[in-house]
Amino acid sequence: MKRSEEKIYFVKDWLKLAKENLLFAIAGMKEDFSPYQTICFLCQSSAEKYLKAYLILSGWDLKKIHNMNNLLAFCFDYDRSFENLKEECIILNQYVVTSRYPSDFTSENIGKNEAKEAIDATSKIEQFVLNKLNF
After folding, report:
1. What whole-number percentage of the chain has pLDDT above 70?
2. Three-class DSSP category at 92
3. Residue 105 has what pLDDT?
């Protein structure tokens, strides 16, 4: 796979935004009032960006896809070891929409345990992708 300088800079921008999303999610857990649904949404958004960064660097044409399972399927086309992230993508996929709009969730459905689980899943995806990208 040939990595052009332009593509590398583009991918690094995706990685930067992914990291920012994850850092804000983690920081949200430290507040007296933790916005758990927002934390889960940020985690899903972060993981989505990590997977897209990998895909873009692999030669994938960027698509407007938010479904984590679909993105993971695209990753399989380049590297079957992404199967190791299946559980994490299932966890995060539930927050693609359900934590975005008030009519889509009730605050009782997303709590501290779900937010911690989302952070853990995103952190695993982050490390996996960063290892694959080898920057």
Report:
1. 89
2. helix
3. 53
- From 65, 43, 49, 58, select the one nearest 17 (Cα to Cα): 49
Distance spanning both ends of the chain, measured CA to CA: 14
Q: So where are the chain's domains?
A: 5-133
Token code pair at residue 28: 């949200």
pLDDT, tens digit, for every residue of 98-108? Answer: 545 566 555 56
CA 47, CA 49: separation in Å to the nearest integer? 5
**pLDDT tens-digit readout, 32-72:** 778 999 999 999 999 999 999 999 999 999 999 999 999 99
Q: Which architecture characterizes domain 5-133 according to CATH?
A: Up-down Bundle (1.20)
The Cβ-side half-sphere exposure at 121, using a 13 Å CA radius, reads 29
The reported pTM is 0.90
Written as one string, the DSSP assignment of 12-78 is HHHHHHHHHHHHHHHHHTTSSS--HHHHHHHHHHHHHHHHHHHHHHHTPPP-----HHHHHHHHHHH
